[in-house]
Specification:
The complex is a heterodimer.
Chain A (H helix, E strand, L loop, with lengths): L11 H16 L1 H4 L7 E6 L5 H12 L3 E5 L13 H8 L5 E6 L4 H8 L4 E6 L5 H15 L6 E5 L6 H10 L6 E5 L8 H9 L4 E5 L2 H4 L5 E4 L10 H8 L17 E3 L20 H22 L4
Parallel strand pairs in A: 1-2, 1-3, 3-4, 5-6, 5-8, 6-7, 8-9
Helix pairs in contact in A: 1-6, 1-11, 3-11, 4-5, 6-7, 6-11
Chain B lengths: L8 E8 L3 H7 L9 E9 L3 E8 L7 H7 L4 E6 L2 E7 L5 E3 L20 E6 L4 E4 L7
Antiparallel strand pairs in B: 1-3, 1-4, 2-3, 4-5, 6-7, 7-8
The chains are: A alpha/beta, B mainly beta.
Chain lengths: 307, 137
């Protein structure tokens, strides 16, 4: 049973196929509006999420399917001590596909090992979030038209930011890209990502603390939120949170065709004054998230023989 | 130092000096009732110094554990006082409940029934990672 737990579960060719389908959905939404008629997506969200859960639900509704599930652990049987494995087996009796978010790393993998229906990892703690990576890839595909020979700047929390690690991993499979890592020392990209991904695949990268220095170079600027829950010390959090705030003045030296991405939610790292700049594409990125999830649900249900 | 010859059992040879006790513990040899000898820092032409474990009894041995702990060892199988087989143990691709994940954010930290499974991700550096959270073993 094919599931999506880690972005590396899919080959480059499979990702390309998903992008083709997502682009076709955008061009011909009616063609897809009944493809999942009578099918059910279970959204098992053991921790709160707005964007990811709602985009999965919107994706299934736009395919003509239905949705059931829960949006916090307190309203599920896990509050009574049910294991992830048992939950997955039980949900397999009621739904055709599962999207799971869980605070513990590896929980969706456990679900996929026990379910008889496909499982999509909708985020497992700070570990993997492959549908965000697919969303980012569709955004780059739509906005830049290519995955090669791009100068991509990642700015903010590069230490705990799982979306950053996954996207670096995904982009490392394409030729000629240069990665700019902009962060304070405390939030630098972990050495194992540099060693296992960038060095191993011979990807050129630059580490810097200055966003201004690299801004004129960039084709893509990927901003991230510094997450309060990663810090034990509120003062340290506030100091690092305010380190990089993107304001219109900082974009004066940027390329005309730069795209500014952000996985959202943002706190204050991108000023709302930037939203009107045509280079800001983070809300379009959220929309692309729905289309790529539609393509993903279709792919997994087709491979399972359900549709 | 005299240690009796083995009739039916095993000699785990060419253990990197200093790793003998770790292998003894990983294999759970302290729970055996048959004679077991650990020789540490024995002379070796090939290695300079080595550890050796002798087990005088036909007991089940988890060879995967040996391959994980020290992939250079050889296991000699003795039957009727004669060497019948000499095995070199490659590093296993997967380890199940041999080492345990210590990451408090891993699903194994809250679900006690789950097997702790590690996969070999870097042969050169001997790196095993938890299949659930990818933490190093």
């Amino acid at each position: 049973m094919k599931s999506l737990i880690d972005i590396l579960d899919f080959t480059v060719e499979e990702i390309d196929e998903l992008l083709v389908v997502a682009n076709d959905i955008i061009a011909n939404p009616k063609k897809y509006s009944e493809m999942c008629h009578g099918k059910k997506l279970a959204t098992l969200f053991f921790e709160p999420s707005t964007r990811t859960r709602l985009s999965f639900e919107a994706a299934m509704y736009e395919l003509g399917g239905n949705v059931l599930g829960f949006s916090e652990a307190g309203s599920s049987s896990s509050a009574k001590g049910e294991s992830v494995a048992d939950t997955a087996k039980m949900i397999s009796c009621y739904a055709d596909i599962i999207a799971m978010r869980h605070p513990k790393e590896g929980a969706p993998l456990v679900a996929s090992m026990n379910a008889s229906i496909p499982v999509i990892n909708a985020g497992d703690g700070g570990h993997n979030h492959p549908t965000q990576t697919l969303t980012d890839l569709l955004t780059i595909n739509r906005e830049k038209g290519r995955f090669e020979n791009l100068k991509i700047g990642f700015c903010g929390d590069l230490k705990f930011g799982r979306t950053v690690h996954s996207l670096i991993n995904a982009m490392s499979r394409y030729e000629g890209n240069t990665i700019y890592l902009v962060s304070p020392t405390e939030l630098k990209l972990p050495d194992y990502v540099k060693k296992d991904v960038l060095d191993k695949k011979n990807i050129s990268y630059v580490e810097t603390q200055s966003l201004e220095d690299v801004m004129p170079e960039l084709d893509i600027l990927y901003m991230t939120r510094v997450q309060r829950e990663r810090f034990f010390n509120e003062e340290e959090y506030l100091r690092l949170r305010d380190r990089y705030i993107l304001v219109p003045e900082k974009l004066l030296s940027a390329k005309e065709d730069l795209i500014i991405m952000h996985p959202l939610p943002r706190v204050n790292e991108i000023s709302v004054a930037v939203d009107d700049d045509s280079r800001a594409c983070y809300f379009r990125q959220a929309l692309y998230g729905k289309y790529i999830r539609m393509a993903l649900i279709l792919k997994l249900l087709k491979e399972a023989g359900t549709i | 130092m005299n240690i009796d010859a083995i009739k039916d059992g095993f000699v785990i040879d060419h253990i990197t000096a200093g790793k003998g006790m770790a292998i003894y513990e990983l294999l759970g040899l302290d729970k055996l009732e048959c004679p077991v000898a650990i020789i540490m820092n024995a002379g070796s032409k090939k290695m300079g110094k080595k550890d050796i474990i002798k087990i005088d009894g036909e007991v089940p041995l988890n060879l995967e554990v040996i391959g994980y702990a020290d992939p250079d060892v050889t296991v000699n199988i003795i039957k009727g006082g004669t060497l019948t087989e000499k095995l070199t143990i490659p590093m296993p691709e997967t380890l199940k409940n041999v080492i345990f994940c210590k990451n408090p954010r891993c699903i194994t930290s809250v679900e006690q029934e789950l097997d702790h499974i590690f996969k070999l991700t870097d042969k050169k550096e001997n790196v095993y990672r938890c299949i659930y959270c990818e933490s190093k073993g």
